[in-house]
Amino acid sequence: MGDLTGRRALVCGASRGIGLAAALALASRGASVALLARGATALRAAAEAVSARGAPSVETVSADLDDRDAAEAAVADLVRRWGPVHLWVNNTGGPPGGPLLAATEAAFLAALGRHVLAPQRIAQQLVPGMASEGYGRIVNVLSTSVREPIDGLGVSNLCRAAVAAWAKTLSRELPPGVTINNVLPGYTDTERLGELATAAAGRSGTTPETVRATWAAAAPEGRIGTPAEVGGVIAFLCSPDAAFVRGVSIPVDGGRLRSL
Ligand SMILES: NC(=O)c1ccc[n+]([C@@H]2O[C@H](COP(=O)([O-])OP(=O)(O)OC[C@H]3O[C@@H](n4cnc5c(N)ncnc54)[C@H](OP(=O)(O)O)[C@@H]3O)[C@@H](O)[C@H]2O)c1
């Protein structure tokens, strides 16, 4: 399904969680994969797993999306070594939680830098190559908060909506053959979710297990999702099968969202 042989993918935030699951899904469909994150040790382990999944070539890019000049230089170096990137999974770590009224200007600026300004630069770097290759797929990993803001994640809610607006606008500008879409993960079993459960348990005086059970019960599917379930939808959006899907947001949340 959705053969990606001959395609080169850059997956950001790829050393664990949803990003790693996306990289594995792309590799199993035949794509070469470059993995970007900050931590070099986790990147090496991820690269081994992606290689074992069948990627013809695997690159690691150790870069911090909070340092936009350095990240831009690292992506430019990858393209020089590797050639144009066809598939880009735009993913990174989420902003810290907390009440919106308590959020500082520094927190807003940091989150907008990582989630909006860094992707803007990478899009400017990668889209010309996608256009010249006649095949491009950009998939943003956002959140169900694009549709329904999540309590206690005020800065994140704002960034996700900003990226969704950015993506919708870009979807009107990109040339034929180059698409951009968003996946909106619901509660998905990653390190990030573990941290959020611990923080929520601390605030409400309960246990992380109880918090996780509440989250699982909130979806008609009655459970927390797996990273692979999100990775599979990302791989579909990267595939030729999704050529006519453009500018949309797809929840992968077990049916938790009530909005249309
Ligand atoms: N898990 C969920 O339930 C869920 C639900 C909705 C939305 N989301 C969103 O989906 C995205 C991925 O979630 P996840 O649960 O997979 O997160 P995760 O487990 O925390 O993984 C985040 C990945 O991004 C990398 N990263 C973090 N900050 C970075 C930076 N400044 N520059 C470059 N790479 C960076 C991390 O590696 P390094 O730390 O080594 O850089 C790691 O590879 C996040 O934006 C999250 O908020 C998650």
How is this structure best described in words?
With 260 residues, the chain is an alpha/beta fold. It folds into 2 domains: 8-186 and 226-250, NAD(P)-binding Rossmann-like Domain (Rossmann fold, 3-Layer(aba) Sandwich), CATH 3.40.50; 188-224, no CATH class. The chain is built from 8 helices and 7 strands. It has helices at residues 17-28, 40-52, 68-82, 105-133, 154-173, 191-204, 208-217, 227-238, and strands spanning 8-12, 32-37, 58-62, 87-90, 136-141, 178-185, 249-252. The protein has a 7-stranded parallel β-sheet, sandwiched between helices. Strand 5 (136-141), helix 5 and strand 6 form a beta-alpha-beta unit. Helix 1 packs parallel to helix 2 (40-52), helix 3 (68-82) runs parallel beside helix 4 and helix 6 crosses helix 7. The longest helix has 29 residues, at 105-133. The two termini are 28 Å apart. Bound molecules: NADP nicotinamide-adenine-dinucleotide phosphate. NADP nicotinamide-adenine-dinucleotide phosphate (NAP) binds at residues 13-19, 37-39, 42, 64-66, 91-94, 114, 141, 143, 185, 187-188, 190-193.
Task: Give the arrangement of secondary structure elements.
Layout: E1 8-12, H1 17-28, E2 32-37, H2 40-52, E3 58-62, H3 68-82, E4 87-90, H4 105-133, E5 136-141, H5 154-173, E6 178-185, H6 191-204, H7 208-217, H8 227-238, E7 249-252
Helix pairs in contact: 1-2, 1-8, 3-4, 4-5, 6-7
The protein binds NADP nicotinamide-adenine-dinucleotide phosphate (NAP).
Rg from Cα: 18 Å
CATH superfamily of the largest domain: NAD(P)-binding Rossmann-like Domain
The side-by-side strand order for the widest beta sheet comes to: 3-2-1-4-5-6-7
Strand portion: 5-15%
What about the largest sheet?
Answer: 7 strands, parallel
How many structural domains does the protein architecture include?
Answer: 2
Helix/strand structural class = alpha/beta
Q: How far from one another are the termini?
A: 28 Å
Hetero compounds: NADP nicotinamide-adenine-dinucleotide phosphate
How many β-strand runs?
7
Assigned CATH architecture of the largest domain: 3-Layer(aba) Sandwich
| Shape type | globular
Q: The CATH topology of the largest domain is what?
A: Rossmann fold
Q: Poorly predicted ranges (pLDDT <50, ≥5 residues)?
A: none
**Percent of residues in helices:** 40-55%
Please, how many helices? 8
